[in-house]
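Supplementary Note 3. Input sequence used for the single-chain structure prediction.
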Amino acid sequence: MRIPPILAAAALSLLLVACDTKNPNGMPDETAGQGTMQVATDNLPKPDSAAARTENPVMPADTSVAGAWLLLEGALRGHDAEVLNQLIDPEFGLWILEQPGAMPLVTRVAEVGAFRRAYQNLPLFSLDKQLMTCPQLRVMQQLPAADCGLQTRQNAGFAQQGCFAGPATAFRSLEFWASATVKGGTAAQGKAAQGRTVRTVLQTRTGFRFHFAKSAGAGGRWRLIFIDLREPCTA
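The predicted structure, written as discrete structure tokens, is reproduced below.
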């Protein structure tokens, strides 16, 4: 059957009106206000490979220091210089605080494999024989202070025994630079690193303290900044 010209024209007009109502942009496969946004992929920013190298994936992205401590403990026990070097802050480095005599000795360490302790010229990995075995760190609001009257061969002078994690407030305010011998860096650099410390891990058998900071930026990783190898009750 042939459609009269007047009816055909009316039908075409209705079709055009319907298309305009569906999509004011003239795209018949999208409804008005519900279109899918098309994103140009040609100009998307590419990953910054240099930034990716800065934060090694081995570093834990946790809010506590426990993950970094486990890495440090494993590296010391396993004599793994590669993992231990990854824990070192690339900007501030690692500083070792010792007291071989009357005056403190502070050494900035660039390569852990080359470092030798003042005590018997031992490597840093000799600490593996002095580390306590603790299933986990006990978190404290304030780390316990040493009481030399409590000192024994298995306790450096603490009423509580174990492995503790707490704020590094006391260490940040500690003043030892005026009388210290500084090697591998300057006192100013060491003070800047000291000021960055946030959390401390204490082992009561030796009194050794391990001080950590977070690297700059959102999602920063925990870094080992200072190791204090001074025994609290050593004259």
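The chain is about 25% helix and 15% strand. Residues 65-228 form one domain.
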